[in-house]
Amino acid sequence: MRKDKGYRISDETLFLQIRHGCGKSFDALFIKYYPVLWAYTRQFIEPEDGEEVVQDVMVWLWENRRQVSFETSLKNYLFRAVRNRCLSLIDRNELKRKVYHIVHEKMSSHFENPDFYDYEELTRRIEEALTRLPESYREAFELNRFHQLTYKEIAERLNVSPKTVDYRIQQALKQLRVELKDLLPILFLVL
Known about the structure:
Blueprint: H1 11-19, H2 23-41, H3 47-63, H4 74-112, H5 119-131, H6 135-145, H7 151-158, H8 162-179, H9 184-190
Helix pairs in contact: 1-2, 2-3, 2-4, 3-4, 4-9, 6-8, 7-8
């Protein structure tokens, strides 16, 4: 790939090279678009979330480079992908806030009762329930919930796919919901 000042490679040519696995072309694309995409995210979400969104989009683009096609331009495709990820993140956060608000409204009388917060009992019951989970479910769940690792980080650590991590965590949550159903309102706050 030439880098002469008088020569500018088009996005279409750059992406064609990326599609064929050229890492240098991907680096050039990343350097070209990362700052403007990150700046674009700031109108929707916090800067640190924006960094993650842009990185996720770029990684997704690289991993799916052979299947990706765009109708208008690569630039428009990237901005649309980043915007959609930002909106999804906003929707997830809004849903969490709504659930918290609904639970708080419905359970406020319980929350005001000091006996409801028997922290030691709650901790003991959660720990017992966790020990009854299959090892693979428990490990994935604890790495995600207690060590704040992403599915991708857990997958790398456990040498499995992110989809396997997602499945294990979902199964762990199902089992925990059944075992701890009488504690569900407070578990929203803890887990």
